[in-house]
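User: Some background: our group keeps a shared notebook of sequences we're curious about, and every so often someone picks one and asks for a predicted structure to add to the entry. Today it's my turn. The entry only has the sequence so far, pasted here. Could you supply the structure so I can complete it?
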Amino acid sequence: GRVRPPPPYVQEQVLDEGCPGGCAPTVRLSKTHQRAACPGAIPSSALVVCPEFGSLQPLQPPVLGSVRLLGVQAGGAAPLIPTLLALKMASKSPTDLVKASTRRIVSSATHCSIDESAVAVLAASIAGASSSTTTSSSPESAAAAEVGQRGTAMPEWDTETHFFDGGEDTVQYLLVLDALNFCFWPSEGSWEYERLATGLKKSLIADPDCLSASRLAALDDASLCSLVGGGDPLPLSTERVRLVKEVGEVLMDKYDGKAAELVRAAEGSAEKLVSLVCEGFAGFRDHAVYKGSQVFFYKRAQIFVADVWGAFRGESLGKFRDIASLTMFADYRVPQILQTCGVMVYSESLQQRIADGVPLTAGSEEECEIRACTVQAVEMIKQALKGDHGVDAHSVQIDWYLWEEGE
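Assistant: Of course. Here's the predicted structure to add to the notebook entry:
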């Protein structure tokens, strides 16, 4: 008459690596530790069963990875349960996950593709190549030439829009700003990124304690509206309040209330800082499920790292030895200019939806393909710049001036 405890769930690793033996390990979790699409902390009972070594080995942090739940061990049967879990895997860096998962999408995409010849044209324009290498008179080539005029130099940090004091308050400002940096649409009022950044800057100048972790953790809708300059409410205000409160709570819990301590904990590594942000702040974990497989973008986590690097000009708190490992930041603006330049090509149905102003559902195949193609297109532009023109540009730099062109 006793109820037997549930058997352990058996999960199969989705990623290519993860085991010292080079094989795909099995991960065992009890039912109580099941997490659907949740990159939370690994429970102490999580163990890797290595078929090559035949022994149990602990699953190590700190990088987020992905496993697919296969089923339950019960009398030899293992029924398929289509649940995705995100666990910390030591085998992949966060930016490697972005590159690998977006590459998989591009290889099978049906709504969006990348024109390699247009990549070469845009790269040549960016590199300042002679006009003889871009003889086409198409609108796409003309757009590429216009984009390329600015080159790949790091732009000056926009201190008119952004706060900068050369110290810790700048990092605190940037983490809050990037927690709020999503979903700005003209149809939802006059809110745009520039207004957000400027409003937050003015509040910090007027009250240097306004971004303290304790005050962030106590934020509500009214105080958020005041913090960013007042007026009409921010779009998705409740969600933005939740994310800023999380920033305050995590900073108090782990980093003595200071975003600068978060940066110092990364020890000069952009990769490690992205990992720390994704590990500590759930609101920065930007991933989706595409045709049954998990895809990673980590847009705002990477933007935060890049903003710290850019604001400090790669020095002091912004000195990262591996800044080149970051990808571009997959949002809505860069694809616009890449499509105008002919680099990204949409299917007729997707093009019609965009022309008609039909919103794409977050996490839909179309949205995932656009974001993935944007990441991979910038990676291809970076490779063409270096391989064909000897220009060593970071994806961050390419993103920044494409984003500005999209303005």
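Suggested note for the entry: Residues 1-91, 129-143, 145-151 have pLDDT under 50 and may be disordered. The two ends are 68 Å apart (CA to CA).
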